[in-house]
């Protein structure tokens, strides 16, 4: 039970960091997760293996601060243009990583 509470606290901190970096209110849902996936994709974090929520959160925050939302999206587009097979695999891992530390949409 204690671990569940700790995991929920990490998820909430993760969601708040992303929402703050994007300028949205916490709980903005799918749009926030989309931005998080783009930023994680654009980050330098290797997406192999199991990642801690704090690592994911830091990588997203750092990428958004360094590149901005548009810059992250531009990096995603560039990779899909240059290396589509690698980009697909990296985005799948980014989506899975964000999903692992983001609460599901209500309803």
Report on the structure:
The chain contains four helices and no strands. With 107 residues, it is mainly alpha-helical. Helix 1 (2-22) packs across helix 2 and helix 1 (2-22) packs across helix 3. The radius of gyration is 13 Å and the shape is globular. The relative contact order is 0.17.
End-to-end distance, in Å?
A: 24 Å
Give the % helix. Answer: over 70%
Oligomer status: single chain
Q: Biggest β-sheet, characterized?
A: none
SSE string: HHHH
Give the integer mean of the pLDDT values. 81
Structural class: mainly alpha
The total of helices stands at: 4
**pLDDT under 50 segments (min length 5)?**
none
- The count of strands amounts to 0
Question: Over all CA atoms, what is the radius of gyration?
Answer: 13 Å
Shape: globular
Percentage of β-strand residues: under 5%
Write the layout of secondary structure elements.
Elements: H1 2-22, H2 30-42, H3 53-82, H4 84-100
Helix pairs in contact: 1-2, 1-3, 2-3, 2-4, 3-4
């Amino acid at each position: 039970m204690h671990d569940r509470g700790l995991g929920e606290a990490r998820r909430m901190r993760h969601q708040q960091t992303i929402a703050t970096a994007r300028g949205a209110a916490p709980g903005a849902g799918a749009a926030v997760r989309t931005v998080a996936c783009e930023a994680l994709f654009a980050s330098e974090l290797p997406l192999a293996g199991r990642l801690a929520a704090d690592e994911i959160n830091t990588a997203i925050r750092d990428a958004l601060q360094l590149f901005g939302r548009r810059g992250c999206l531009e990096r995603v587009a560039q990779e899909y243009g240059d290396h589509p097979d690698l980009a697909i695999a990296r985005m799948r891992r980014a989506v899975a990583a964000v999903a692992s530390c983001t609460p599901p949409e209500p309803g």
